[in-house]
Amino acid sequence: MEQTNESTGRLIAIGDIHGCNVALQAILAAIDPRPNDIVVTLGDVVDRGPDSKGAVETLLQCGQKTQLVALQGNHEEMMLNVLRGSESHHSWLRYGGVETLDSYGFDGGLDFLPESHRVFFESLGDYFVYEDYFFTHAAYDPAVPLEEQTVEMLRWHSLRQGVPEPHHSGKTAFVGHTANHEGQILDVGHLVCLDTHCYGGGCLTAMDVRTRQVWQANPDGVLLS
Q1: What is the pLDDT along the chain (225 residues), one digit of tens a residue?
Q2: What DSSP assignment string belongs to 65-110?
Q3: Which of 26, 86, 88, 147 is most deeply buried (CB count within 10 A of its CB)?
Q4: What is the largest CA-CA distance in the chain?
């Protein structure tokens, strides 16, 4: 997904939410998104944290106020594969699916998603390009155009396996997926990782990618910056 027309608003990325709806609400209240802003969520809205359903609902409400671009993470991939019957539920449940099901009041049927949430999940993109920046959930192959990247690179590659070199486009990458357990932002210049381990006791991070202004909130919704 690529967008090239100029925006006079802010361009804001939000790292892995993982069901931390209280932190998400605090971050969005602090940002106060306006209609001409673009808010990009980097994937993994669901799983592990306590309120995946609430987090999705918060993003749907946010999308009524501003331009929301939501990317698909590996956790959304696992969930969707289970719901489509193309993958066993075992891996998803092991890596946080139980908490997601609990938040939706799962009663045994796979039709637990409200229609608006199903549409949201089906609409998730793999990457987003805007101006001098691009956004993916996990990483990228530096030599490959974004439209030709593999799902493995975009959703699953851990930066602990290696931080990619600058992308051949020269654009700066904003990613999540690889959690920093100390709650710190990883910034190597050509790549910024905003997964700061909210569900594990870290914080949720948002950044205005142009100005590098940062907003962070802990799982209890206390703003840290």
Answers
A1: 555 444 589 999 999 999 999 999 999 999 999 999 999 999 999 999 999 999 999 999 999 999 999 999 999 999 999 999 888 899 999 999 999 999 999 988 888 999 999 999 999 999 999 999 999 999 999 999 999 999 999 999 999 999 999 999 999 999 999 999 999 999 999 999 999 999 999 999 999 999 999 999 999 999 996
A2: TSEEEEB--HHHHHHHHHHTTSS-HHHHIIIIIHHHHHHTT--S-S
A3: 26
A4: 48
Token code pair at residue 99: 């908490």
Q: Which structure tokens are listed for 102?
A: 């609990």
DSSP one-letter code for 201: T
Q: What is the number of residues in the chain?
A: 225
Which residues in the chain belong to E strands, given as ranges?
A: 2-3, 11-14, 38-41, 67-70, 127-130, 133-136, 172-175, 186-187, 191-193, 204-208, 214-217
